[in-house]
Amino acid sequence: MAEKPTQAERNRQDGTIQLLRWGGIMFAAGLLAAALLQVLLGGFSATGASTNSGWFALIVALMSIPFGLLLLLLGIAKWLRNRSLSAGDEP
Length: 91
Prior knowledge:
With 91 residues, the chain is mainly alpha-helical. The chain has one domain. It is built from three helices and two strands. A two-stranded antiparallel sheet has the order 1-2. Strand 1 and strand 2 form a beta hairpin. The protein is rod-shaped and about 60 Å long.
C-alpha cells in the first residue's frame, strides 16, 4: 500500500508553497512601491501622484498590494487546510 503524503509533501504537490512565496513577494513589492512613492517620488494628493515615476509607483502599488494579499491569503488558507488534514491523519 502507498503511504499517505506528509504535510510538506502535500504542500509541495498542491502549490501552497508557491502561493505563499509569490503572494508575499507581490505584497512586499506593492508596499515597497507605496513607500517609495511617499518618501522619494514626491508623494500623492487627491489628484494623483506629482511626478511621472510617482504615477508608475502608484500603479504598481495599486496592482500588487490587493493581488499579492489575495494570493497570500489563499496560500495561508491552503496551508491551514493541509495542516488540519495531516493532523486528522495521525492517530
